[in-house]
Amino acid sequence: MRLSQTAALSLTLLFTTTLHHVTNASHVVSGTDARLPMSLSSVIADLEAEGASYVTTATFLTSKSVRQSESSTLLRSLFGVSGKGDHDDEVEYGVTTAFGKKLADSPEAENDESDGGSGVCIACPPCSASRHGTLTASEVSSTVVACGGTVVYVADMVDLGRGEGLFDYLGPAVERLLASRATAESSVQHRPSTLIVVFNGVKKTDMAAARKQWESAASQMLHAIIQPTTVSSEATKLEDVFDRIEYLSADEKDVDMQLCPAGGRVSAPGSPSSREPSEVASSVSDVVNAGLVENLGPMVEMAARVQVKQACPRLTNPVDLAAARLLGPLARKALAECLETIHSATGDDGKVLVPEFGALCGAAIHRALDTLDTASGLRFKKSPIAKRIRTDLQENLYTEMGDIYETQVMSLKESAFASFRAKLSKLRISSNLPDQMNDAAESSLKEFASSVKRLRVPRATSYGSWMSNADQISSLRSQFAEHNGERLKAARASGQFKPLPRKGVTVGMHWLLPKPFGNDYRQEPHLTHTADDLVYAPVDGITDVTGSEIRTGDWRRGVVPAPSGGEMMYLK
Length: 572
What we know:
Layout lengths: L1 H23 L2 E6 L6 H11 L4 E9 L5 H11 L19 E5 L15 E6 L13 H10 L4 E6 H6 L7 H14 L10 E7 L6 H18 L19 E6 L27 H13 L7 H7 L14 H29 L10 H20 L7 H42 L7 H23 L13 H26 L52 H6 L20
Parallel strand pairs: 2-4, 2-5, 5-6, 6-7
Antiparallel strand pairs: 1-3, 3-4
């Protein structure tokens, strides 16, 4: 009896130990097919509900030649999704956009009741064609930023050999990651990031050669992307972007345990990659609230010199990304060179009058647009991003020229007003002084109208609020008239100018004249003859006839009854 009790106790302890081990083992908590990067928030909340005290986030990306079936197999094998867990069926590449996995407790944290363990949240945007479609490069880049820059990247042997298709998504993501770090406050330290490169189809004996090819291609990519100018030095190698880089083969298991930037287990206490769930969720919400998921609107508005009137097109393919990376800096350079050319003639404040300002601006704008069109060529002919960059450059050019144009017109008005006052100073005070002053004003206005036409840039009316030539002339005419009026008032007040007295108008009528203002046709309508109207009158001169006389006679010979006095009107 004592033996059986001992055996039962041993079995109970064994069952408890096994159950404790299963509970502490790594397992998938949840998966979601919602849109990235917003779907990360729900997975983080599930990990927190599962008891995870710390969460590490990462993005799973593949190169162009990795097929969907290979991506699905690699996603499950690399992150230990065996299919035996309760939620393993929620992880399906091409459908699931993110999933969370609760990691096994580290030996250091097993006896710490305040530590609920760690978890990883993996974003897996479909980079290869699937029945649910692929994400845009902008959404993938935003997801990488939301994950703190930690990436698990599968590089295929085919893409390594040809040097293409490696950075269709990773290149824009690195560009966005560097830009986000540059725009963040200097006092805020960015989250340590890890890049794990998994070589697909590469033998372990060829890992060194594959790594060399990868590093060479990555260096070319970093030179091609747009990097922020506010940092002290540009990134020339991947080590300048990521805090830790690991190169693994496709046979590796439990990659999620190697996401720690400091090395070792990701679930170890004090891991620099681990963050509280609330902090990780805040990073995701910051990216969403920045408006960088749908389009590039906020980034364009920050860099534009004028107000953006329409939302920037979405970056839907690598061609658009290449257009943004290549043409964006060229457009800014073309605008700067155009302004430098104009200011070299007008001065920094634009007040130096250039008689042929319109021709100068037209040539400078044409050269700036030709420079951009030459760089664009046929490669980006159908790209909406390239068209938008050209439109923005054109509007920026005309807007900047419009500001300088207003300064030039003010300088021309000052010159015209000085010439007008010089003409007035030569006039002698006489009774014809007002007419002479008006003649001087009209003469100066003609000279101004001829000069202001040469200041205007061709086709400038469609851009900005350019004031028309007629409005400019009307404004100066009012200024001349006001000045003439003040000068005449001053001359009258001083007694120097006395206008000619007006001649009286006399009206005389004689009492014997019966009709001083002509005949009254209302009293004698038959005496009024016009080319359009015919007035019929009977022999006796009486114009009134009865209705029976009209009915019994021929209508063409009848006489229409005419009202008498003021009711009669004869009109053409």
